[in-house]
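RECORD TYPE: inverse folding
INPUT: structure tokens
STRUCTURE:
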């Protein structure tokens, strides 16, 4: 009763056979495996590159920024210097 076409325009069995036949005519039966192999290799390289970039981004998110670390170290040094000068001032005023 209700025929719902979910994916209109996607090739079915007969259309795929026609496409395969045209590919054989254009490239020849000997070149199709080489073409498929090179396409697969290119897809593999793309996926590896994408994974490397994703890993680098995750590492960057996990590692604190070096500039921030340097800032925090300098801040701690200044706080220690301030504490030392306060203790020196307290000891000088109590004498």
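DESIGNED SEQUENCE:
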């Amino acid at each position: 009763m209700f025929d719902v076409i979910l994916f209109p325009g996607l090739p079915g069995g007969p259309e795929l056979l026609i496409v395969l036949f045209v590919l054989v005519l254009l490239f020849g039966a000997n070149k199709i495996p080489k073409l498929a192999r090179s396409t697969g290799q290119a897809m593999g390289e793309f996926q590896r590159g994408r994974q490397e970039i994703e890993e680098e981004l995750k590492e960057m998110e996990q590692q604190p920024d070096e500039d921030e670390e340097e800032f925090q170290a300098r801040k701690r040094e200044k706080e220690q210097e301030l504490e030392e000068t306060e203790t020196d001032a307290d000891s000088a005023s109590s004498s």
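NOTES: Residues 26 and 32 are 10 Å apart (CA to CA).
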